[in-house]
DNA sequence: TTCATAAATGTAAGTGCTTACATAAATTTT
DNA sequence: AAAATTTATGTAAGCACTTACATTTATGAA
């Protein structure tokens, strides 16, 4: 049941299982070394093996080949030097470089260890064959997959999808008034001076938007209001998009996108033929979002004309 | 080329590659948490996930389910308690047990994290699917394989085979005299008082064994003498096996076995019909080795009769 | 009951990595 | 050539584990 639980947890658990596997392997190697009365630690293995193969390498070269930090390599190197298994010299052409080679003692030790290493290799090969496993290939495949798209990107995409799927878009009700004010005030204050005409609209959504034939959509997430968008009624055929806001710590997950989709759907259903909006070049992400939905710059007069002093951009889309 | 080198190193490198993979994953998860402004560390994941699922668990139960030491679980528990994400109570029936549950704050956090976890799960699933990988099954297979026979046993077997394959059995030459004496003296002194008749045979192998028609075989490993066995000529048809010695730090790898094989082959080739030996019940491993080769106890007189004061066992085999 | 043993938890210290920072030598840019 | 940048190495401290050991409580056998 343990196993089953761990499986549920996905790759994190996979890694911990593999880590445990390696730990067993490492410990068992240590046991074999000590049975042979050989003074050697498993973690020296890759380092010494590499040095044996390559003859002479600098610290950084080793760390790179072993996919470790230079600090880790340095620590092993120091331990090996203390055990007199390797020797240091300086590169004549580059005095920074610490060149490492196996000492005579080190070479002798390697000879003694050869059968252990070979034995471990055979043991692992045998195990994999017996299990009919292609572990190596599997890992290869995964690494290749990650070259196409990083784990981070994959997680981001999927997390965004999860979050967006939990976001609900609902119609405005008076109970949301405070959240509507808060969310919009927050970004307004962040980017601009909040001016009287902003306040009038913002603090009286029922009177200034709904009662004048406009609409407000509310985005909720985990039962909290986390986004808003409003469509003012300019005329029977024209709406104006405004008061688009998403809670700061949830920005960048696609919630704005979802709000826009709903807003445009609503506008179409309502019979609008055109949707306009006013924004500012400073709100780069917002402008990009609008463009993605097909908005383009226009110069028609706006209901909120006085906002133009913010060096606004006016945009519109034909529905 | 890095990759190729690491591949050569087998499963140890596999593990380090997977570890790196996990590290990336962990870091990326941490990044997503921080983007969401959630105060949560990746290493809390399994712990909290488990607690969410099971509701209430004791520390030891958690550590067992997560395949960790109780100390590790304890440390995470303390961190989580400090962050007020879990709460401790005592088991009424067993006052030792520290029962842990998610606090209200913890439960809220889990709600927030759910999409991240789900997203990670989907990301990993997607990656595996895309790569056409069955990593999970592969690991399963390997774990099953290890239930049949542990890594340690596998390594031991293979290391033994490697060592034995490097051991050479050669005929005695006077140059090996000192090694012959040394190796035998060492175990004789370890188990018994070394008596005059031992010394006579041991210190004069040329005169006392070879020149009297007997034979000595020498086992070498990495150009060092590490084992001996002698066959005294009792008569034309009968030989007596003696002076079987293997260097202490190489015992248990099957070198004695290889020496015995060679000795029996030699005896047959020489025309002996029977091989006898004297040993002691104290040398349990040796007795077992002899039995494995078909020796059984006998009571015929021995060339080394006076050894019988060691409460010896006499054994023989018909060739 | 009592005494030995086992189980649950906790603490301290060690291990094998890491990150962060520092220094010196080499290389590139200006 | 001087200044800025990069590279190679080193040191200190942190992290997430581990092992070793200690303490308290429960359990089982005599």
What's the number of helices of chain A?
A: 13
Instruction: Name the overall outline of chain A.
Output: elongated
Would you tell me the structural class of the helices and strands of chain A?
alpha+beta
Q: Which sequence of strands runs across the widest sheet of chain A?
A: 4-5-6-7-8-10-9
Unreliable spans of chain A are none
Strand elements of chain A, count:
10
Q: If you had to describe this structure to a student in words, what would you say it looks like?
A:
- The structure is a homodimer of 319-residue chains.
- The first copy, chain A, has helices spanning 2-8, 11-35, 45-54, 59-65, 70-82, 104-130, 135-148, 151-166, 177-191, 196-203, 205-210, 255-270, 284-292, and strands spanning 56-58, 86-90, 98-102, 168-171, 215-221, 224-233, 238-246, 274-279, 296-297, 313-318.
- By secondary structure, chain A is an alpha+beta fold.
- Chain A has two domains: 2-148, Arc Repressor Mutant, subunit A (Orthogonal Bundle); 167-318, Gcn5-related N-acetyltransferase (GNAT) (Aminopeptidase), CATH 3.40.630.
- In chain A, strand 7 (238-246), helix 12 (255-270) and strand 8 (274-279) form a beta-alpha-beta unit.
- In chain A, helix 4 (59-65) packs across helix 5 (70-82).
- Chain A is elongated, with a radius of gyration of 33 Å.
- The two termini of chain A are 56 Å apart.
- The model of chain A has no long low-confidence stretch (mean pLDDT 87).
- Chains A and B meet through helix 1, helix 2, helix 3, helix 6 and helix 7 of A and helix 1, helix 2, helix 3, helix 6 and helix 7 of B.
